[in-house]
Design a protein that fits this description.
Layout (H helix, E strand, L loop, with lengths): L2 H43 L4 E3 L2 E19 L5 E14 L4 E6 L1 H6 L5 E7 L2 E7 L2 E4 L2
Antiparallel strand pairs: 1-2, 2-3, 2-5, 3-4, 5-6, 6-7
Length: 138
């Protein structure tokens, strides 16, 4: 082979590598853009709970009622109750568990497994609106 043919062959091979490299680079760039569009679309579909002033309202279902009390019996047989704690545990549509300390009256008033609109602020229960009415923590 002559040196001119070798140079030509070298130029063709280098050009081929450049074209293949640009092709794969563009293919990767398009894949990244598609993933970003998909992520953006998924983010737009998920609507955050309604928020106003830290108060959040979202659909939830009561899944647990917790009643914790310490009973003490002294040597005379007198019974005293202390450390009373009442909690409601709700599960949201996104399967997030929310636990709230409530009063004894609120614990008794909320029907178990009921689905409705839960309103809360931070870790404080405000109210639960369901088909049977509205229950507020007092």
């Amino acid at each position: 082979m002559q040196s001119a043919d070798m140079v030509f062959l070298f130029v063709v091979l280098v050009s081929a590598f450049i074209v293949i490299g640009v092709f794969f680079f563009n293919l990767r760039k398009e894949k990244i853009k598609a993933e970003q569009r998909q992520t953006k679309t998924n983010t737009q579909r998920r609507q955050p709970p309604n928020k106003t002033g830290g108060i959040i309202s979202e659909t939830a279902q009561l899944t647990e009622k917790i009643d914790v009390r310490t009973r003490k019996i002294d040597d005379k047989g007198n019974i005293s109750v202390s450390n009373e704690s009442y909690q409601l545990v709700f599960t949201t549509k996104t399967n997030k568990n929310l636990c709230f300390n409530v009063t004894k009256q609120t614990l008794k008033a909320v029907p178990f497994n009921e689905r409705g609109l839960l309103t809360y602020k931070g870790k404080s229960f405000i109210k639960f609106k369901y088909s049977g009415g509205i229950i507020e923590d007092k």
